[in-house]
């Protein structure tokens, strides 16, 4: 698409940028692909705040970081426009509407989840979520498993998690090592296609931050600024964790959540679906903060709200703190809300630090990152991990009482229908969930 817009647009004020980031946080449905697509349409094509080349350069950096790439991209672009305050505003407003909505929905779930109407809605949403996870595994696998070596890594990751319940971090590290070694020793068996290699760059007109626009002063690399940012990030993290330890003890539920979700935030290569098995292992099996059924319900709520899917961790924090109240049984909502806030803080703090540390280097080099080999291995393992998660969810949804219990045929019909709908209309996730919820209510 060509255009005659040869004059760059006027730079947005900080207030105008705030209004946009808040609006984006309220309508960012559709997972990372949909959220990135919205930002591309708005910021590259319509507003022309940034050129397509610079947009993709920022996206490529966010893709290699642990954490939600769409939220990190919003943080990056906000930082590029208005410095660290712009980055903080963009990244925070990207998740704030989802956080507030999930706190409200989590309270409704815990207070009224056993009523017939709510139970019926969840009965339909659960198989739809199972279908969404299975579809995600198929979609990512189709895009990334282009060689026998990567397919073998995916199969090994599936078996390691589903049959042997190996720790998620060990699977990711082993996959990265296999990807690196395989690319060096047998590159013909480990070739992969870049996620953005086939992207067609189009001319949308002169942008405010164009291909040849000099890096603004606040975005230039400085070793002193790098060190200062690192210290501030570590101090924020350490102070928050120390305050929780002082107030509730190291074994307190909020302290444990802070430490656990710090580790989870550093392992979310491949998006939210990849880290969900690790969260499940810790929250459900190790700490017993919530049950497997509640975890599936939380994913259902996360799929039906705006913001990054990793916000399902806020539901985990709310339910875990509700059922293990840090302020006593007479303050259940306050405990649950505190759990959601603590989990959100420790989940997203590393993302902000990664952007503020690394983005100046990326703007300085404008080169390609050379982390493809280990990341290809991680991405392949993510496919197997997500497939394992889908099978696990199917087991709990279709056999809620175990293999010897009754099979939920209505749930299977809803799940298969949702999977078919996803294959036809992959961007209509909210409508598919809504239709499945109505079907569950009818059943």
UniProtKB/TrEMBL annotation:
InterPro entries hit by this protein: Chr_Tranpt_l_chain (IPR014047), Chromate_transpt (IPR003370)
KW Membrane (keyword) present: yes
Keywords: Cell membrane, Membrane, Transmembrane, Transmembrane helix
Membrane topology reported for the UniProt record: Multi-pass membrane protein
GO molecular function, one term: chromate transmembrane transporter activity
Membrane-crossing residue ranges in chain numbering: 20-38, 88-112, 118-138, 150-182, 226-248, 260-280, 332-359, 371-395
Pfam families in alphabetical order: Chromate_transp
Major localization listed first in the record, in broad terms: membrane
Cellular location(s): Cell membrane
Gene Ontology cellular component terms for the protein in this record: plasma membrane
Family membership noted in the UniProt record: Belongs to the chromate ion transporter (CHR) (TC 2.A.51) family.
Record NCBIfam families: 2A51 (TIGR00937)
UniProt name for this protein: Chromate efflux transporter
Organism: Candidatus Propionivibrio dominans
Gene: chrA
């Amino acid at each position: 698409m060509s255009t005659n817009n040869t004059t760059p647009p006027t730079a947005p004020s900080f207030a105008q940028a705030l209004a946009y980031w808040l609006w984006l946080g309220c309508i960012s449905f559709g997972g990372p692909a949909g959220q990135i697509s919205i930002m591309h349409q708005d910021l590259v094509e319509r507003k022309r705040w940034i050129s397509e080349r610079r947009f993709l350069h920022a996206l490529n950096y966010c893709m290699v970081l642990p954490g939600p790439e769409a939220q990190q991209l919003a943080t990056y672009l906000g930082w590029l426009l208005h410095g660290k305050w712009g980055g903080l505003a963009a990244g925070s407003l990207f998740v704030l509407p989802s956080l507030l909505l999930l706190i409200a929905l989590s309270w409704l779930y815990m207070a009224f989840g056993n009523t017939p109407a709510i139970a019926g809605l969840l009965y339909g949403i659960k198989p739809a979520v199972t279908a969404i996870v299975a579809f995600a595994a198929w979609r990512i696998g189709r895009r990334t498993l282009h060689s026998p070596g990567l397919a073998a890594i995916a199969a090994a990751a599936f078996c390691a998690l589903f049959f042997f319940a190996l720790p998620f971090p060990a699977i990711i590290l082993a996959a990265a090592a296999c990807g690196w070694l395989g690319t060096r020793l047998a590159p013909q068996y480990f070739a992969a296609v870049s996620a953005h290699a086939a992207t067609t760059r189009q001319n949308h007109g002169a942008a405010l931050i164009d291909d040849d626009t000099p890096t603004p002063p606040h975005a230039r690399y400085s070793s002193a600024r790098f060190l200062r940012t690192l210290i501030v990030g570590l101090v924020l993290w350490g102070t928050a964790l120390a305050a929780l330890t002082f107030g509730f003890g190291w074994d307190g539920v909020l302290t444990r959540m802070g430490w656990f979700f710090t580790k989870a935030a550093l392992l979310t290569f491949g998006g939210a679906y990849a880290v969900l098995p690790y969260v499940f292992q810790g929250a459900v099996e190790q700490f017993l903060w919530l049950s497997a059924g509640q975890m599936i319900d939380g994913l259902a709520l996360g799929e039906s709200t705006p913001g990054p899917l990793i916000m399902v961790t806020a539901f985990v924090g709310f339910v875990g703190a509700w059922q293990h109240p840090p302020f006593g049984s007479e303050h259940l909502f306050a405990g649950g809300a505190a759990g959601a806030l603590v989990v959100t803080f420790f989940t997203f703090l590393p993302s902000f630090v990664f952007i503020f540390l690394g983005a100046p280097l990326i703007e300085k080099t404008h080169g390609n990152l050379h982390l493809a080999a280990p990341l290809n291995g991680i991405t392949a393992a993510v496919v197997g991990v997500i497939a394992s998660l889908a099978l696990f969810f199917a087991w709990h949804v279709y056999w809620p009482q175990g293999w010897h219990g009754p099979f939920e045929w209505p749930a299977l019909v809803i799940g298969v229908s949702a999977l078919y709908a996803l294959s036809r209309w992959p961007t209509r996730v909210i409508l598919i969930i809504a239709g499945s919820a109505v079907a569950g209510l009818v059943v």
